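Q: May I have one protein plus its fold?
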Amino acid sequence: MALFRKKKPQRMKGKLFTKQDDLKDLPPMVEVTGVHRTYESGAEPVRVLKGVSLKVQRGEMVALMGPSGSGKTTLLNVIGLLDTPDSGTVKFAGIDVTDLKRRKVPLFRQNEVGMIFQQKNLIPSLTAFENVYLPFRYARGKRKAGREQAREALRLVGMLERENHLPNQLSGGEQQRVAVARALVLSPAVVLADEPTGELDHKTSDDVMDLLQELNEQTGQTFVIVTHDHSVADRADRVLNMDDGKVVPEKRQAPRKRPATKPRKLAPKNRKKK
């Protein structure tokens, strides 16, 4: 499914929108309106989302914060089409994806949404390259081109020289870089990250966020990051807070000035082969 077929000059690698001034009047990349989600658990149902509404602009990096149990991960799963709301709508670039036919949901998610998980979810028996290439096994007609794209994604996150290593041969930070490459390999319009630095030490966490911020600035992809870490949230253009299943109204009017990325965190292009 080609989401942005009518706007080819404004796309990057077929899907991505950049932060160009001429895009400011287009619909938000993500728009959530009045979303409710209740789970049947035990004797009484548990209301997790209670009429959530928010907008994320194209090319924006938004951090989603709040106490445990406030509904952050559930909201991320609803946006990523991993969960279905009881009511309300989710729109991508003005298109109501909650109205998609069930058979079209996996293809839409595959092409337009990249997911980065705290646990990384790499397959232990597959190499770094094979983990990143995995989405192409389910993409019709893209397997041959996918090998080149998988290596380019690994190069982008500085892991090309480790492409033949298994996950247990990589550090925690290296595993997360591979997970980032896998999320980006199909050039999704939106990247959703659930506590991407939650299991990393401070130095490695800082390196991963340098990478995500630089990718956001270079590609114009839209990022939504769930985090408890204020140092991670400080990297975002905007911070949204959740409490008791709702998004707390923003008090700050001026846009955030996030810290600049450290120079050259991405892989050097002219590194000599051993």
User: Anything to note?
Assistant: The two ends are 42 Å apart (CA to CA). Helices lie at 72-79, 105-112, 128-133, 143-156, 172-184, 202-219, 230-233. DSSP finds seven helices and twelve strands in the chain.
